[in-house]
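To the wet lab folks,

You asked to see what we're planning to order before we commit. Fair enough. Below is the target structure as tokens, and below that is the sequence we designed to fit it. If anything looks off to you, flag it before the synthesis order goes out.
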């Protein structure tokens, strides 16, 4: 078993981690986002730091987002940059890709952006309104395209057919590893996924390995993921 201050199996790694939600503005005061709080990314970063890695952490910030707490003595190996939109996240991550040995994409990136955000505040009216949404940047996709030998770990949160969707994304996105977990359906409570401290799921590899990780604190899930891929 690996203990804090124990095995330094990521000493030669500089890991680029994306985490948290991205947001897209509707107008000067309103925006759209998702339920991500960055907890899984923080757990992945803290465990990587513990094992000796340097971590470039690109965090989408919103109310309630959590930042990694570097273990004592690892503070200078954590490089944090905060962004809000998918485009900002892609730019910050691409800038840091060349020095990375691997990429961990835990971010919940908004798949759509508001086509024409209003610089001034929109006023309330009695008519229904429609909001035009256009596809936003695929952060992981751009990183994968610009890659130069880095390994890639993606995350997928699904409400249905978790493992089938996970396996599809592993292949379609050209990743080395993918961790897939279930999220509660709208209106239901869950112990995995967004804004909770625990998770469970399945780690898949491009070589066909498959490991089920039982429900546990996100720190424990992160430890097991690093054990398996380190
Ligand atoms: N991802 C990303 N940029 C996006 C969308 C996804 O970097 N615009 C990354 C996520 O950080 C994650 C992986 O891609 O590591 C899978 O994200 P997911 O949202 O599950 O994939 P999508 O292809 O967007 O599929 P879905 O339609 O299920 O949202
Ligand atoms: Ca998505």
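Sequence we intend to order:
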């Amino acid at each position: 078993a690996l203990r804090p201050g124990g095995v330094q199996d990521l000493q030669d790694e500089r890991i680029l981690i994306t985490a948290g939600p991205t947001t897209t503005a509707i107008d000067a005061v309103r925006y759209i986002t998702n339920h991500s709080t960055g907890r899984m990314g923080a757990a992945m970063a803290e465990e990587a730091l513990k094992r000796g890695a340097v971590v470039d952490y690109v965090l989408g910030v919103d109310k309630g987002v959590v930042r990694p707490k570097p273990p004592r003595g690892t503070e200078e190996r954590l490089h944090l940059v905060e962004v809000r939109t998918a485009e900002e996240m892609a730019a910050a991550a691409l800038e840091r890709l060349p020095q990375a040995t691997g990429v961990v994409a835990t971010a919940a990136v908004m798949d759509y952006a508001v086509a024409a955000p209003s610089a001034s505040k929109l006023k309330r009216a009695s008519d229904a309104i429609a909001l035009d949404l256009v596809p936003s940047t695929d952060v992981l996709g751009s990183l994968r395209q610009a890659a130069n030998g880095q390994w890639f770990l993606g995350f997928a949160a699904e409400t249905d057919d978790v493992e089938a969707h996970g396996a599809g994304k592993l292949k379609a996105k050209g990743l080395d590893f993918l961790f897939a977990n279930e999220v509660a359906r709208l209106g239901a409570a869950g112990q995995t996924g967004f804004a909770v401290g625990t998770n469970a799921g399945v780690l898949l590899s491009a070589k066909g390995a498959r490991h089920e990780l039982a429900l546990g604190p996100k720190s424990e899930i992160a430890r097991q993921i690093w054990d398996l891929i380190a």
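Structural context that might help your review: The radius of gyration is 18 Å. The CA atoms of residues 122 and 129 lie 11 Å apart.

Thanks,
Computational group
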